[in-house]
Amino acid sequence: MGKIVAIVIIVAVALGVVFWKFGWPYLTGASQPKEVTLTYWGLYDDEAIVKPLLDDYHLSHPNVRVNYVKQSLTNYRSRLQTQLQAGTGPDLFWTNNAWLPMMIYDSAPLPSSVMSLGDFSKTFYPAAKASLTNQNQIYGLPLEIDGLALYYNEDLLKGVNVSPPTSWTDFVNDAKKMTVPDQYGQIQTSGAAMGTATNVAHWSEIVAMLFMQQPSADLSKPDNSYGGDVLRFYTNFVTNPQDKTWDVTLPSSLQMFEQGRLAFYFGTAREATMIKQANPNLHFKVATVPVLPQSKQVSYADFWAVAVSNRSANQAAAWDFANYLTSPRAQQLLAQEKTQAGGFGQPYPRVDMAGLLASDPFLNPFVVQGPNYQSWYLNSDTQDAAINDEIVALYAKAVQSVLGGGNPQDSLHNISGDLTKTIDKYFHLGVTPVESNTIF
What we know:
The protein is α/β, with parallel strands linked by helices and 440 residues long. It has helices at 2-28, 47-60, 76-86, 100-103, 117-123, 126-132, 154-159, 168-177, 203-213, 225-239, 253-258, 271-278, 315-325, 328-340, 364-368, 387-403, 408-426, and strands at residues 36-43, 64-71, 92-96, 133-134, 137-138, 141-142, 149-153, 180-181, 187-192, 262-267, 284-287, 299-300, 304-308, 373-374. It is built from 17 helices and 14 strands. The strands form four sheets. A five-stranded mixed sheet has the order 2-1-3-13-6, with helices on both faces. Helix 10 (225-239) crosses helix 17 (408-426). The protein is globular and about 75 Å long.
């Protein structure tokens, strides 16, 4: 009798589950959540790093599956845009913070039900609002806060008993102390990689940062005495015998730093892992960038965000997942996976997470600079074949002109006409350009 009762109970429970899943929705008119599959394009992060985030999201959203596809940066922007416009692109994708002029008409605005502009401004750093919004619409959520910070070789600084400089005057003096030429005058150890448009990584971002720190200098209209002063200061590291620390014949600045032959290197947070892997024995740390006397702390922002295709059939689900990616839970989970893989995490994009990196000697400087990052269209490593590459090429002409003996202000004047044409080409359809001389 006991067995019969047990069987009856089991059958009743099973029938109840079947009724709840299939019969009850039919009688009440309710429906099961729609099964959704999203395609998510990213850069840099391997699938093994991202998969724990996808699994974590799926636990709370069992009807949503996300397929992550790691992309190559080569021709990424043009390849992405071609597929988006053909209707075969991803639902979500990485976009650079300086790509809004090209990507705005392929990107869906963030619904206010997910996040209002006011909440966006409170949650993320000012550079995110400046470069990812247009006419009160949000077109991307930042995955990090990144840009230039000052990497330094601890051993070289100890050798001359100096600390990471906070002013450009100290930076110049310290760099000269650590520059060591051979008997023929060729630089063997460099104090600072500055002055060229060829073998200095992030040279265009460095120039942009100097413009942003110089009152009355304007990247969009550079041909005045203030712009000339900036270009003169930058190229002096090559052209002025008194300040010379660098040369066009040297290897790339990143390679020199990895080899332990460069004291100061301006780089992004993403490069910390690359440097560590290239030379595990290198003793290096990161500091905030130097500033001009009586100038506010300003550095140049270059970071990645996640956006949603305006042709996606599942925009609501895509934005919900994008919002999850910027949540504290997902950000910490991603950092944990990166650390376990032998690298560094990412500087968190959220203001409310700044304290979590306060003791991190590599990432904290990027977060400290977070409120004062500015951005423009001189991001050198995005390979966008559009506004950034075109403006970088114009400024490269000006640098090369000065290295060839030209006057800095005249060199900037010679590119000004083409610079204006380039800016107008990308901003004639209602997209508001970021003001290059605005201090947040």
